[in-house]
Design a protein that fits this description.
CATH class: Alpha Beta
Largest sheet: 6 strands, antiparallel
Distance between the termini: 25 Å
Number of domains: 1
Strand order of the largest sheet: 1-2-4-5-6-3
Low-confidence stretches: none
Number of helices: 4
CATH architecture: Roll
CATH superfamily: Hotdog Thioesterase
Shape: globular
Order of helices and strands: HHEEHEEHEE
Helix content: 25-40%
CATH topology: Thiol Ester Dehydrase, Chain A
Structural class: alpha+beta
Mean pLDDT: 95
Amino acid sequence: MTESEIKDYLYNNIPLAKAMDVEVLDVSKYSLTLKAPLYSNSNMHGTAFGGSLSSIALLTGWSLIHSQITDQWLPTGDLVIAEANIVYEKPVATDLVAQAKVDQTLFQNFVNTYKEKGKARITIEIEVVTEKGTGCRMKGCYALIQQSV
């Protein structure tokens, strides 16, 4: 999927992405970066709202996996977050930029398991980065479950 296809999909299927003004900065086979402006996602302290930080992290991980399973023409399935753990390291006083990366071997094992069993899980790490370092880190476990026909 291209950057514009991912953005269109998010805006048409996940209303929160549009409300957050999410943009796709970069997508490659094993990484994806989303951005959301601080002005749409701030709290009373002028920093990023914690809920917006966790949301952009979840969306970034989900978008990376979704784009790859779409590109690989896998049988239709439901991709959901199964478990998430987020650590807030420092306030984010700039636009929210979230980066997700997945190891090639780990992703291929995920795909193979899905093809064999009709369901699979994958855990990836997402960081929200600032010019001063990492604002927060999330480990997200995403599950893909084949839809029954």
